[in-house]
Amino acid sequence: MTPDSATGYSYEECTATADWLLKRAPERPLVGIVCGSGLGGLAKMLKDELVINYCDIPNFPQSTVHGHAGKLVFGTLKGKPCVCMQGRFHLYEGYAIQKTTMPIRVFKLMGVETVILTNAAGGLNQDFKVGDIMIIKDHINIPGFAGHNPLVGANDDRFGVRFPCMSDAYDRDLQQLVRAVADELDFSVFMRDGVYSVLGGPSFETIAECRALRQLGADAVGMSTVHEVIVARHCDMRVLALSLITNKAVMDYQSEKKANHEEVLETGALRAKQMEKLVSTVVSRIPNTPTHCS
Ligand SMILES: O=P(O)(O)O[C@H]1O[C@H](CO)[C@@H](O)[C@H]1O
Ligand code: HPA
After folding, report:
1. Which atom of ligand 2 is nearest to the CA of 120?
2. CA distance 84 to 34
3. Helices (H), the chain
4. Cβ atoms < 10 Å from Cβ of 179
5. Which value does ipTM take for this structure?
6. Which H, E and C letters describe 151-203, residue by residue?
7. Catalytic amino acids?
8. Domain range list for the chain
9. Residue 28 has what DSSP assignment?
C-alpha cells in the first residue's frame, strides 16, 4: 500500500486556498490568530477588517460548534497585518485530523510568521482558578499516543521535515513577552503557565481520567490546539498558545460539579476584554522575522 495524504489536503490544494484568500485580503498577514471557544471576540480587535465566511472559502472545512462562528477575519492590529479564525475545527466534529489543521498551512502559505492559538480549557492544577489565563509551555498529545497525529501520511518536504522537533514547540521569547505585557497591564494575578493535554472529546473527562492527566504532568485539559501547534511547527512558524481556564476539572468523587459547554462560553465572555487586551498588546510587540538579503 502506498502511503498518501488522502484524508488531508495536498500542497497544491492549500496553495489554491491561500491564493484565493490573498486575492481578496488587503495585505499578506504576518500574524495568524485562532479563537478558542467563546473567544471569538478577539477578531473584533482588528481594524479595517475583511470578513470571509468559511462556507465561501474553497476547500475550507465548516465550523459546527456553538461559540465558533466560522469566519475568517483579515485586518490590522496596531498596524500589524493579521488574520483571525473565528472558529476552529476539532477531531470530534468528525473531520480527519489533517483537515482540522489545514488552515494552519494556509496561514503559512499566506505569509504568516507567528501563530497565536487560544482555547478554553479545564483546570487540572488545583492552584488554578476559573478565569486564569495559562501560557502553554508544553503539551501532552494523548491522541498522539495512539498514532493520531496530523502529520501522519506522506510527508511533503515543501511544508517541513518528516520528523519535526517538538521540545521547542512553544516559543520561549513569546512566552516571556506575554509575561512582561501581563505585568504592565496588571494581569499577573490571573496569569499562570503550564502543560496542556489534549483529548479527542466530545465527552468531557471522567474523574479517573482527570486524575491520570494530572499525574502525567498536565495542568489543563482540552480538545484542541495541540494538532495546530504540531502543524505550525512543522512548517516553521513561531507559536504562542494561551488557555483560558473556563472551569475546574472534576477530580473528586464527592463533587456535585459537572463540566458543561455553557460554563465554558460564560467564562470566555467574562474574561474576553482582558484576553483581547493581552493578545492585542502582545501582537503589537511581536518582532517580524528579519528578511534575508541574498
Ligand atoms: O479548545 P476550544 O476550541 O477552545 O474548545 C474547548 O471547548 C469545548 C468544550 O467546551 C471543546 O471544544 C474544548 O476544546
Ligand atoms: O474541562 C474541560 N475538558 C475538556 N475540554 C474543555 N474545554 C473547556 N473546558 C474543558
Report:
1. 8
2. 6
3. 11-24, 97-100, 102-110, 142-145, 172-184, 207-216, 226-234, 261-285
4. 15
5. 0.99
6. CCCCCCCCCCCCCCCCCCCCCHHHHHHHHHHHHHCCCHHHEEEEEEEECCCCC
7. 37, 68, 90, 92-93, 120, 223-224, 247, 261
8. 11-154+163-285
9. -
State yes or no: 205 annotated in a binding site: yes
Please tell me if the CB atom of residue 119 comes closer than 6 angstroms to any atom of ligand 1: yes
Phi, psi for 121 (deg, rounded to 5) = -145, 155
Phi, psi of 81 (to 5 degrees): -70, 130
Place of cell 500542497: 11
pLDDT (tens, 9 = 90+) of the chain, 294 residues, equals 344 555 689 999 999 999 999 999 999 999 999 999 989 989 989 999 999 999 999 999 998 888 778 999 999 998 999 999 999 999 999 999 999 999 999 999 999 999 999 999 999 999 999 999 999 999 999 999 999 999 999 999 999 999 999 999 999 999 999 999 999 999 999 999 999 999 999 999 999 999 999 999 999 999 999 999 999 999 999 999 999 999 999 999 999 999 999 888 888 889 989 999 999 999 999 987 765 554
Question: Looking up cell 503559512, which residue turns up?
Answer: 108
The residue contributing the CA closest to ligand 1 atom 6 is 120
Domain 11-154+163-285, what fold? Answer: Rossmann fold (3.40.50)
Which is nearest to 111 in space by CA: 288, 292, 293? 288
